[in-house]
Amino acid sequence: MKLTFLGTGTSCGVPTIGCQCYTCTSPDAHDKRLRCSALVETNTTRLLIDCGPDFRQQIMSQPFRRIDGILITHAHYDHMGGMDDIRPYCQFGEINVYADPLACQGMLQMLPYCFAEHRYPGVPAIQLHEIHPHECFRIGDVDIQPFVVMHHNLPIFGYRLMQGHATIVYITDMKTIPDAELSYVRLCDVLVVNALRHTPHHSHQTVQEAVAFSRLVGSPKTWLIHSSHDIGRHEEVNIQLPPDIQLAYDGQVIEV
Questions:
Q1: 208/191 Cα distance (integer angstroms)
Q2: Cα three-residue angle 36-40-46, rounded to 5 degrees
Q3: How many CB atoms lie within 10 A of CB 13?
Q4: Fewer CB in a 10 Å sphere around the end CB: N or C, the chain?
Q5: How would you class 7 by CB atoms within 10 Å of its CB: exposed for 0-12, middle for 13-18, buried for 19 or more?
Q6: Which of 182, 241, 172, 174 is nearest to 216 (CA)?
């Protein structure tokens, strides 16, 4: 599998509008972080994880070909606010979107014109699939298993993606995880998990909490995402992190 980080930033992105802090004024391209999204691809299958408001900008750098499925982690705007921009991909057929019941409801409210009985021409053709924790499903040659993490008091989805002997676990916006869900995170080749900043936050992990989580589940390689400007500059943060736990950056490609 190939994992491409389309965006690694938090809900405000980096630079943050109007901010002149040390991170936001960095000339390093690694410090330009769009809202979180990723592509997971095999030779025959292409999946998008989350479709936030930066989707159009993110996808322009990628080859234009079919998206076989979109996996939504939760019903917050920074993770599904770009859904209308998938319309060019509908020339390949309906877009299959997979989400929990709350995110499905949010999609219906955000894009009512896509699900109306009499849709006007040109709206995105979305086939919405309600999925549930621990119930595996397959898209192309990738097996997918959603599991639950807690975004403060909101249960949201992490995803375990498996193809052959390769396994990626992708988590965003987590603060805690129920003990019963840990088995769905362990034994992965690559862990992708959120790390907002160094100081505590009520609904997101800190860098230190993300490192501790990686050690808890025993991931051989961990990439940190959903990072704000408060985390600092990419190069300087990575020097301080263990070699097996690093900040991801927009456009980075990982072969698993």
A1: 15
A2: 120
A3: 22
A4: C
A5: buried
A6: 182
Q: Quick one: pLDDT band at residue 121, thresholds 50, 70, 90?
A: confident
- Dihedral, 46, 48, 53, 55 alpha carbons, nearest 10: -20
C-alpha span between 178 and 133 (Å, rounded): 13
The predicted-structure confidence for 149-201, as pLDDT tens digits, reads as follows: 999 999 999 999 999 999 999 999 999 999 999 999 999 999 999 999 999 99
Numbers of helices and strands, H then E, in the chain? 5, 14
Tell me the per-residue pLDDT of 45-69, one tens digit each, with 9 for 90 and over.
999 999 999 999 999 999 999 999 9
Question: Do residues 111 and 84 make contact, with C-beta atoms less than 8 angstroms apart?
Answer: yes
Q: Token pair for residue 233?
A: 């500059």
Tokens of 60: 């322009």
Query: What pLDDT sits at residue 50?
Result: 98
Q: Which has the closest alpha carbon to 98: 44, 64, 51?
A: 51
